[in-house]
Structure formats: C-alpha cells, structure tokens
Amino acid sequence: MRPLVAITMGDPAGVGPEISLKAAVSAEVSSFARPLILGSGLVLRYYANLLKISVPLRSIDSPAEYQDGFVNYISVNNLSLADFEIGKVSPLCGRAAYEYLEAGIRMALRGEASAIATAPLNKEALHRAGLEFAGHTEILAKLTGTKDYAMMLVAGNLRVMHVSTHVALRGACDMVKKERVYKIVTLAATAAASLGVRDPRIAVAGLNPHAGEGGLFGDEEIYEIAPAVEKAREQGLSVYGPLPPDTVFLKASRGEYDVVVAMYHDQGHIAVKMAGFERGVNVTVGLPIIRTSVDHGTAFDIAGRGIADERSMVEAVKLAAEMVKYKNEKK
C-alpha cells in the first residue's frame, strides 16, 4: 500500500496552502503516496476555488478515513480568511502553523502517518505568537524529544548536512568543534542509509578559504575538523576532508561524493539552491519519525496569486515515500 504522508499546511498567509493543494492533486504524488493535508479547511477551500481544482475536497477526522479520489484533509485550527491578511505576518497564522505541525508529529509518532512533509512557516509570525523556536527543525526536536539531530538538504545528486544552521555567522564559526563535526558526520552516514545509499562517501568541507591552506587562513581545519574526520574513519566510515568549500559541492553534484558536511548555513544552502531551487528538499535527520520539507519560505510576495511552484513539495512527498520504503526494507 502507498504510504500515507501527512502534509502540514504551513503559514496560512503564505504559499503553503496553495502548494499543499497542488501537490495533493498531482497525479505524480498520488502514484507513490496518499497525501493527507493538515490545516484550515476554510483556507483550503478558498484556494481550491481560486485554483479551480476539480478534485473534490473531503474533510475527515482520522487518517483511517482516507479515500482515493479526493483531496483529503483534517481541519486543525480552522482559521478563515477574515482572521488574517494573505501575504502579511500574523501571530494567528504563526500559532496555526505550529498546531498543524504538532498534529502531524503526533500522528506520525502514533504510526497513523508514515511520514510528514511540511509547507513553510514564518519565523517572525511564530515568534509573535509567543513560540520562541528558530524554525521547524527545533520544534520537531522538542516535540519528539530528540537531542541529536541535523538538517539535510537534497537537490538531485547533491545532499548536504550542516554543522550549524540558524545562528549568527560569528556563532557558527565558534560551533566548529571536533565533537560537533564528528556527530554530524555520523548523522550523515545514517541519513544516507535512510535514502538507500550504502557505504556512503562523505565529504567534509573546510570552514576557511581553501580549507585553511595549511593554517595560513585559519586553523579550525587542523585542530577541529581533521580530528573529527580521522575519528569517523576509525569507526569505518568513508570520510574525506577537510576539503576546499569552493569545489567540494561541484564534485558531489557530479557523483564523487554521496553527502557533503557543510560548516554553516549559507555554505551549504547556497550550493543546494543553485543546484535546484525549485526541487530542493529539506530532511530532518535523527528524529524517530520521517520528516521532509520544501526548501523555501512562505513567499509572502506571491501568496494568494495562484502562481506558487509546487515542485519542491512534490519532491518532498516523493522523498518521504522513498524513505518509508527504505525503512520498511530494513525491517
């Protein structure tokens, strides 16, 4: 049976409702998954009319009621368009987006959904609602009780994990410690296995230009990154580095490496978004559930216009279904 993938609608004021609906009615998505949207039924019906979606929407109370031939959804925090303005930051929408995600996490933890795929939330709206999280990843870690986790971005052959993500650049440099780098390398191996890659070749990027050039441009490679790489090798992992950041992503995209460990947010994100912005997918590694996400934000500037590109959400649901398959094959 095709896995049931819960799609959390994201911030109602952004493009989340639109891309969730477009993905749910996609013949491609229906061929490999059973998509179930968690969000506001009123907002979803508004967008169904705007987009002239011919597939009927069906409100259900539990995943067990899912039926093919419909856009199945479970109404959570049923905001209406009278409660907020499309394209504007709203604490009500921040709270709603959190509740959609919370419902999806609970559903996955209970085994009612095989995986979740998340539409974007807005961090400012989240904070205005009194929810002091940096983003999806931190909420997922909190609600699943996960301590060791990381973000992996996927765009075609390019897979990237990060030593740090949502911190200031100065702070990110301070986080390049051998213990942290080693932990992310081991998580990268786990992540690759969850995608069906056996004995993955893991490339570790340097922090400094030219990976420090033997200490001329910084010594983090010598004292922090290289020892972590060596420790991972001693554990039997195929790890390479520290490698110059300006070439390692190109080599990985050409198939020389299976995963790249980036030292900070933009080092990895820029490479992935250049490789395939429309089809990029975010995966949270280390959780007890499978979670994928689009690799873009709420795009308030185009919200409500019916022109949002759903390909990243389609790829997120597809990757989630593939991960469910690999997980089941290992049992």
UniProtKB/TrEMBL annotation:
A single GO molecular function term of this UniProt record: 4-hydroxythreonine-4-phosphate dehydrogenase activity
Record's keyword annotation contains Hydrolase: no
Keywords: Metal-binding, NAD, Oxidoreductase
Cofactor annotation: a divalent metal cation
SUPFAM superfamilies according to UniProt: Isocitrate/Isopropylmalate dehydrogenase-like (SSF53659)
Membrane-spanning residues: none
Xref: InterPro entries: PdxA_fam
Pfam families (alphabetical): PdxA
Enzyme class: oxidoreductase
EC number(s) reported in the record: 1.1.1.262
Subunit structure: Homodimer.
Protein name, per record: 4-hydroxythreonine-4-phosphate dehydrogenase
Annotated organism of origin: Thermoanaerobacter pseudethanolicus (strain ATCC 33223 / 39E) (Clostridium thermohydrosulfuricum)
